[in-house]
Amino acid sequence: MSFRKVNIVILVLAVVLFLLVLHHNFLGLSSLLRNEVSDSGFLGLQPIDFVPNTPRHAVDGKQEEIPVVIAASEDRLGGAIAAINSIQHNTRSNVIFYIVTLNNTADHLRSWLTSGSLKNIRYKIVNFDTKLLEGKVKEDPDQGESMKPLTFARFYLPILVPNAKKAIYMDDDVIVQGDILALYHTPLKPGHAAAFSEDCDSASTKVIIRGAGNQYNYIGYLDYKKERIRKLSMKASTCSFNPGVFVANLTEWKRQNVTNQLEKWMKLNVEEGLYSRTLAGSITTPPLLIVFYQQHSTIDPMWNVRHLGSSAGKRYSPQFIKAAKLLHWNGHFKPWGRTASYIDIWEKWYIPDPTGKFSLIRRHMEISNIK
C-alpha cells in the first residue's frame, strides 16, 4: 500500500514538473511572438523620455498636436537646438518635438533642452538603434555626413511617431520663420504619403543650380546604366525633390508600407550600386525618389528655401530671405561651421550649450586669433 502511495506521489510530482516546464516555454514563446510583431520588428527605436510640459504660449487643450521630427547628432546638436527654438517661438500651436538621437547623445541633449528658453517645450527623445541599417548601407568615405546613421531616421516616421496620423520631418540645418501650423496643413492628394518641395519649381534652386547640370532631376541621383533602374521606366529628366523638409501622411505611409519599400531599395543598392556615382545630394534621396515617383504632393517652395549652405556667399536679396518661411543650409557650409551665409539670422535662434561641449567653430577660431 505504501509502495503504491509513493508511486502516486512521484507521478503527481512528475505531472507538476511537466506543467511548470510547459508554462515556462509558453511564456517564452509568447514573449518571442510579442517581440516579433512589435512595430514590424523595429525594436531599435525606443523612447528614452517624454516631457509633457506646458508650451510657452497658452495652448488650447483641444488643439491638434503637431508632431515635428528632427534628428540630432552629437556634432550637429547646436543646429537641432536652433531649429527647435525657431519653431517654438513662431507658433502658438501644440507642437511636440520627436528628437531622434543616439544613446550617447541623450544626456547632453536633455541638459540643453532643460535650460533657458526651451525648458517648457514638449518633446520626446527617441533612441535610434544603428542595427536597423545593417545590410542596408554601404560604407563610402566620399559620402561623409550623409552616411551617418541618423540621416536615415526619416525613413522610419511611423515607428518614431506611432500614434500620429500626420507628421513633419525636417533636417537640423534649418530655421523656421513662419508658423509651423501652415506647413502642417499642407494639402496632400488622395493616395499620397508625403509632400516635398520639388527642385525644378523652387525659386531658390533656380537661382543657384542654373547651368549646374543634372542636380535637379532623377539622373543626378540614379544610375540609369543599371538595368534594374531602367526597368522602372522612370524618366531621367523627372524633377527631383528635396527630402530635408516634408509633410507625411502616416496613415497612408503605413498602408503603402513605405518604410519596407525604402529598405528594399537600400538593400538593392548595397548589392548592385543603383545610385549615381556623382550623387547630387544626400544618400537618402535616391530611394525616396524611386518610392515616391509621381506619387507625392508638393509643399510651398517658401517652406524650403534651400542651398544656403552651398557657398559662403549671399545669393538672395534681404527681402527674399525675410519672406522665406523656412531657411535651409543644405550643403557644406553650415551656419555653425567656419564660414556660412546669413549666419546673423541663424545665430538669432541659437542657444549656447550650457555644458560647453558644443561651440561654434568660427567663434572658437576668432578667440584663438585674438589670443
Molecular structure report:
- The chain is α/β, with parallel strands linked by helices and 371 residues long.
- The protein has one domain (66-130, 137-348): Spore Coat Polysaccharide Biosynthesis Protein SpsA, Chain A (Alpha-Beta Complex).
- 35% of the residues lie in helices and 15% in strands.
- Strands 1-4-3-2-5-8-7-9 form an eight-stranded mixed β-sheet, with helices on both faces. It has a two-stranded antiparallel ribbon with strand order 6-10.
- The longest helix is centred in the N-terminal third of the chain and has 36 residues, at 2-37.
- Residues 24-43, 54-58, 207-213 and 364-371 have low confidence and may be disordered.
- Its main location: membrane.
- It holds the Pfam family Glyco_transf_8.
- It comes from Heterocephalus glaber (Naked mole rat).
- Keywords: Glycoprotein, Glycosyltransferase, Membrane, Signal-anchor, Transferase, Transmembrane, Transmembrane helix.
